[in-house]
Specification:
By secondary structure, this protein is an alpha+beta fold. Helices cover 44% and strands 27% of the residues. The protein is built from 4 helices and 3 strands; from the N terminus they run βαααββα.
Length: 86
């Protein structure tokens, strides 16, 4: 059975911060790379889930989109790291 995942927006609500602050915190922790991808270690640990989709844009044609979700275990880990840093 897989863990529930949360979009950045919903994970930020659960942590009591804004989505932009959460995304910045994930970058600072190295969970999101400069290429806006989930770091492989965070994915292997089951803290983040990365999903790739392709869609057709009527003006520019086919585009790729990467979506990063945070798992329940990822929220626990992130909360612990935020508290340690405070």
């Amino acid at each position: 059975m897989s863990q529930p995942t949360y979009r950045i927006k919903h994970a930020a609500q659960r942590l009591g911060i804004k989505p932009g602050q959460l995304r910045n915190r994930l970058r600072e922790l190295g969970a999101i790379t400069q290429e806006e991808r989930a770091h492989p270690t965070w994915v292997r640990e089951g803290w983040l889930k990365e999903e790739h989709r392709q869609f057709y844009h009527p003006v520019v044609g086919w585009k790729w989109q990467t979506r990063i979700d945070i798992t329940e275990a990822g929220l626990v880990e992130l909360w612990a790291r935020i508290r340690r840093a405070a």
